[in-house]
Amino acid sequence: MSDKARNPSVFASARELREYLAPLRAGGKTLVTTNGCFDLIHRGHIQYLFEAASFGDLLVVGINSDASVKRLKGPDRPLQNENDRAAIVGSLKMVDAAFIFSEDDPREFVEILRPDIHAKGGDYPKDMIETPVVEKYGGKVVIVSLVQGFSTTSIVSRIHHSERR
Question: In the predicted model, what is the mean pLDDT of residues 1-21?
């Protein structure tokens, strides 16, 4: 059984998702995109996604592929595979759709989806690499609040520390 059959909000690619979104956007729905590894879902992720969703009608989340997470976070990551991470994020009530992307940055999928709003966490600068692509199509970048003390890296570190005791 394919992941799509199990979770209808998980799409194979940004291109497939664009086709699904086309009639919704033609009907006036505002598209918000964001992206990340989402390796272990924690309170910071939940607040980030709720806040991102508040900027529009549809929230779409790009999930970094396993290979890109390894390049970005190191050889011990991800902790969960890309299909599981996409299924978990796609199942959250504030998320309308999720998909996996293999690039190290979101510019290609932003170019494909052309969001009205592209949201990133408070640890990112507003002038990030995808900003010119978002703005080229009349969209804007928003930075959502950062919940201090919540990150997958810090959770993994605490687990390792407690194992050594």
Answer: 79
Amino acid letter at 87? A
From 117, 85, 109, select the one nearest 17 (Cα to Cα). 109
Say yes or no to pLDDT of 1 above 90. no
Domain total of the chain: 1
- Rounded to whole angstroms, the Cα distance separating 18 from 133 reads 16
CATH number at residue 84: 3.40.50.620
Residues in contact with 68: Cβ distance below 8 Å, sequence separation at least 6, in sequence order? 101, 102, 103, 104
pLDDT at 123 over 90: no
Average pLDDT of span 102-125: 92
**Token duo for residue 107:** 């510019």
Closest CA to 33 of 59, 7, 71: 59
**153 confidence band (pLDDT: 50, 70, 90):** low
Q: Which DSSP string corresponds to 18-49?
A: HHHHHHHHHTTPPEEEEEE--SS--HHHHHHH
User: Does 144 score more than 50 pLDDT?
Assistant: yes
Phi, psi angle pair for 85, to nearest 5°: -60, -40
